[in-house]
Amino acid sequence: MISPPFFSRGDLDGFFGLFVDNLLQIMLIVLLGPIICGFTSTQIAEQILPAVALSVVFGNLFYAWQARRLARRTGRDDVTALPYGINTVSLMAFMFLVIGPVYRDTGNPELAWQVGLFACFLNGAMEIVGAYGADWLRRNTPRAALLSALAGIAVTFIAMGFVFHIFAAPALALLPMMILLGVYAAKLRLPWGLPGGFVAVCVGVAIAAALHALGWLESTTPAVAADLGLHLPRPVPDSMLALMFSPLGWQYFAVILPMGLFNIIGALQNLESAEAAGDRYETRPSLLANGAGTLLAASFGSPFPTTIYIGHPAWKSMGAGTGYSVLNAIAMSLLCLTGTYAVVMAWVPLEATLGILLWIGLSITAQAFQETPRRHALAVSLGMIPALAAWALLLIETTLRVSGSSLFAVADKFGSDLYIHGVIALNQGFIFTSTILAAMLAFMIDRRFDQAAGWCLAASILSYFGVIHSYRLTESGVQNHFGLNAAPEFAAIYALCALLLWLLHRDARRAARSSGALPPSAGQSLQPGPTLAARHPAPDLAEAAPRDRAHP
Fold first, then answer.
1. How confident is residue 445, by pLDDT bands cut at 50, 70 and 90?
2. pTM score, two decimals?
């Protein structure tokens, strides 16, 4: 039994990637928290960020320990710990759809913060409950379905968002980006074995200093107020549970429920991504730790859930092991518990670090095609479309808001130039829609029509209750719409499609029986017999492609 090294050269690269990702979340809390949620700089520095540090440190250390245990059990020295931190999507959803509306309606930042804590607590509880059924879902879902949603998120919300930022500031960002791409994609080795992420950040800082000295670049980093000093996390059980029996707290369950489900499915997809890269982690303990970190955050004053991050393959390609996770825990502790995040935000240009996030987005997108059977490439492509719709809606809403208008005011003016209601419908619950569409097509490609019908029926049920496709367009934006028969048109059509797929399955079984290929008592899904096979040649299941656990 080998003992893996605590630190390797790749851990420094991996640390910069994870640290930048976590730093971005801190920046969003510090910059948007006072505007959207009414948080004071003192509350952020002394209550919220110390709780963030506690939850992030807990998760980073757990997943580092988990990775070392896997390395010792398998005798490998190349195991990479799962990346972990605040979920960007949950952070933005909680700010704009939970905490922000309470603050806007009541003008009471304390009450808004309490509602956020309650929502975060319920989110963590849902993740812990979901851990006991998620392994079955992971075993019975095609890899194409689990990875395609991640690919859609990676190519849009990660790669596209940050590449725009890079090309908006080419003097600062392009050279660090090229250094990173050269090191990671071309596998270049820098002089003296220096890590590419470290060199890229140093080059970005040097370029920024030179441009400032020459007067060619004004500071783009806003001043951030923070008291330097030790701010230890303090438990806030009364504030967290104050709304347990109040209708105000449960008023936002329509946001909390999909975000809890989103985090569970997202964690499963990230676990599948890690397995495709070579590191198989057990589902239940991974999700239990995920939920425990969120409960810890809520118990000490942070209203923002934490989760397993997207991007494990990218960190693995950097050569990161377990040390990068420990380094991130140490760095986050120093930033959040001492107020030094303000110093970092003032001196390190964000543009110098964005190439790391771009690489992560590109790696995840590539993995979805590389680590699934070639015959399922169509399913991966289809599964990416809902995320593209969500990205398009974000761009549309941002454009309208900047122009002083709103989607509510102009939606009916788009007409056939842009089927905006289709964009919104795909956006609602897009991660579930992505998984379902990719799974359906993957099973259809393998002509396992009964399995495809089951996924189609799931889409019908989710549409009926409003988890996917259902929405209300209001003056404050697109809102979730839950309830019975929330999206009747989608529910009915998905049910009809499920029936059609089931009939195809029955037809295939009858054809197989008539040819003697299937005994009448068989209860498994088989390839269709000669009649259908003549029209639809069977795929080569032995093709040289990665093995799909759900498709033997």
1. very high
2. 0.71
